[in-house]
Write a structure and sequence with these properties.
The protein has about 190 residues and is α/β, with parallel strands linked by helices. The protein is built from six helices and seven strands, in the order βαβαβαβββααβα.
Length: about 190
């Protein structure tokens, strides 16, 4: 039985290096027999604002319902996004806010501080691009985007393990450096991790 991989691209610009990363990961995974589906968040038609928080449910647009079906289908989620101002692009954060909801991704228990993790059995790999050294982002800034996506979203909902890979410094990188990174990502796809 082939592994079902969902590639979630959180970069809003289709001309970005993140789209090249997504393409080579897909190529590597397909060459190893994985089934692939994709979500390009920028292509989805939805309001990224969780207007009422959890007080009142906002109806999910068709694109979000389709995205949720893909998340449920997948064994392994590959999140690809840049780090902007230490965090996720706004459209990616809005996607998470609108879709990773109580009753979907997790469920609070009545009269309890605990919750049920509704996405258990899935794994993930976060591939993020940086315009600073990865060690600096990790140890000086304490990697806020990773803490948010890995710990506060994916692991909170039961997805584990969650691997994290940094690519950069992208700004000012040479074509040779980018080619080297792309080969590494294609290999990750081939190994389906």
């Amino acid at each position: 039985m082939s592994k079902k991989i969902l590639i979630i691209n959180g970069h809003p610009n289709k001309d970005s290096f993140n789209f090249g990363i997504a393409e080579v990961y897909k190529r590597g995974a397909e060459s190893s027999g994985a089934e692939i589906q994709e979500i390009i968040i920028a292509d989805l038609n939805f309001n990224p604002n969780l207007q009422f928080g959890y007080q009142k449910r906002t109806e999910l647009e068709p694109d979000l319902l389709n995205a949720w079906e893909k998340i449920q289908w997948a064994d392994h989620l590959v999140w690809i996004h840049p780090v902007w101002w230490g965090g996720l692009p706004a459209i990616t954060k809005g996607f998470i806010d609108r879709l990773f909801l109580p009753g979907f991704a997790f469920q609070y228990r009545e009269n309890s501080p605990f919750w049920d993790k509704l996405l258990m059995g899935k794994t993930a790999h976060i591939i993020t691009t940086l315009d600073q050294p990865a060690l600096f982002y990790r140890f000086y800034f304490r990697r806020p985007s990773v803490n948010q996506l890995k710990r506060s979203v994916l692991q909170f909902c039961g997805i584990k393990p969650v691997k994290v890979s940094y690519i950069g410094i992208v700004k000012g990188s040479t074509p040779e450096m980018r080619e080297k990174w792309l080969k590494k990502v294609e290999n990750w796809g081939r190994k389906m991790k």
